[in-house]
Each structure stands twice: as structure tokens, then as C-alpha cells.
Write a structure and sequence with these properties.
7 strands; globular; 20% strand; alpha/beta; Trna Endonuclease, Chain: A, domain 1; 244 residues
Length: 244
């Protein structure tokens, strides 16, 4: 009687490792050492740190460059504007004096004196909130929020300072062409006030390609100030008290 012989079989199992997808672009291109280009993209412009002297690849290592829509465009749109707004904010001195704080909801706003003239200093949504309390706000489809403004209640003048910081090509390029519309819209929101409107710009806008934009603003009566000028603060204060 014959027996069936079973030969064991050997199964070769090859395990395929799970490869992580290779990231070809860094997640955050917002902060690099000054003078260094981001990896994998030779066409990106070098990001210059406006806060002077800060060189870091770690956003948490030193002060971050922040922005509220006035930055360098693209991935840097919310990274680079706020320090410029802070650097160019008027500060107390010989001509500029703090008078008192005024409660506004959970915050306070400042009443200030410039060359003997009283202004209420407002930024962003503070303008709308203050005007609502004064029953001077006309509701529209949207509201504009100034980077910095000085309200002269005595003469009913609203002085708007629009700040634009730019260091690479991006979405800010055309935004110095909007002064005429914004002035009109501020007049629509606050019809009982005269609107004065000016720009505070970074040196990026001194390039030849912006000459037509700057010329147009001059023709239309919109002053342009340069945030890095040695006497920037004095020039802004001259503008605020002019024709009072």
C-alpha cells in the first residue's frame, strides 16, 4: 500500500516598507535667515526681516514677523505687516501727548494732543465701534478698518493713515491704487465727517514701476509718506494739523 508524501512548501514573503511621502516644499516659507534662499525654490525672493537683527529659521525662537494683510503676499501675507504698523505708529513726544484713555467696550482708546489740537486715536475696528456709540456709523455691505486714524471731533475730520508694507512681489502690488475708492467709501460710512486719506509706504514702492501709481495719488490729492524717513513722525503730524 503506497503512502502519499506531502512535501512542505516554503512561501517567500517580502514586506514592502511604508514610505512617507517626500515633502518637496517647506510648510512655512515665511521666515529664513537673511541672505539665504528657501530650499527647492530658487525663484522666491529673499524675505528681509524688518525688525532688524533677527535671523532665525524657527518661528518660535525669536520675534515672529506678523501681519494683518499688509505683508509680502502669498504665504507671507499674514507674516510681515504688523511690525511695520507698530514701527510707524505715532508715539508720545514733544508734539504728541497722551491726554486720557476713553472706555470703548472692553477696551480703551486714546485721546491725544498734537500741537494743541485734540484727536481720538483709533485703529482697525475701533473706528467703527466708536462711531456706533456716537450714532455716526451708516451700516453698509461692509466696513473699512484703518491701520491708524486720528479723529478730530471739533472740526469733524477723520484722518486715515493706510499702511502698506511690501518686500516681495505679491497681492499688495495694486493696493496703492485704491485710495480714491476707499475715501469715497469712508464718506459713505461716516457722512458727517470730512475724510483725509494718506499712505504710509515701505521703500519697496520706490521702484520705478510704482511711479504712475504715486503720480496718480498725488494728482488726486493723496499724500504719500515713507515709513523709514528719519522725520516720518513729524511729517505725519504736520499733515494731521494742516488746514485746521
Amino acid at each position: 500500500m503506497s503512502q502519499n508524501t506531502f512535501e512542505p512548501t516554503t512561501e517567500l514573503i517580502i514586506e514592502t516598507p511604508n514610505y512617507e511621502p517626500i515633502q518637496t516644499e517647506p510648510e512655512d516659507l515665511s521666515i529664513y535667515k537673511i541672505g539665504c534662499k528657501p530650499p527647492h525654490n530658487e525663484n522666491l525672493d529673499v524675505v528681509e526681516d524688518l525688525t532688524e537683527g533677527i535671523q532665525t529659521t524657527d518661528p518660535n525662537e525669536k520675534q515672529k514677523i506678523k501681519n494683518r494683510g499688509t505683508g509680502a503676499g502669498g504665504s507671507n501675507t499674514n507674516k510681515n505687516g504688523l511690525p511695520y504698523e507698530e514701527i510707524t505708529t505715532l508715539i508720545p513726544g514733544t508734539r504728541f501727548k497722551h491726554i486720557r484713555d476713553i472706555p470703548l467696550g472692553k477696551k480703551t482708546i486714546q485721546e491725544v494732543d498734537i500741537d494743541g489740537n485734540t484727536f481720538i486715536k483709533l485703529t482697525k475696528g475701533e473706528l467703527k465701534n466708536y462711531m456706533i456709540t456716537q450714532k455716526e456709523y451708516i451700516k453698509n455691505e461692509k466696513s473699512l478698518q484703518p491701520d491708524e486714524c486720528y479723529l478730530d471731533e471739533k472740526n469733524k475730520i477723520l484722518n486715515i493713515i493706510e499702511k502698506k508694507f511690501q518686500q516681495t512681489y505679491g497681492s499688495v502690488d495694486e493696493k496703492i491704487q485704491t485710495a480714491e475708492f476707499k475715501k469715497w467709501f469712508y464718506e459713505k460710512q461716516y457722512p458727517n465727517y470730512t475724510i483725509k486719506y494718506c499712505y504710509c509706504l515701505s521703500d519697496w514702492f520706490k521702484q520705478d514701476k510704482y511711479k504712475p501709481d504715486l503720480e496718480f495719488n498725488k494728482i488726486k490729492g493723496f499724500e504719500v509718506f515713507w515709513g523709514k524717513d528719519d522725520n516720518y513722525q513729524g511729517k505725519i503730524m504736520d499733515w494731521l494739523v494742516n488746514n485746521l
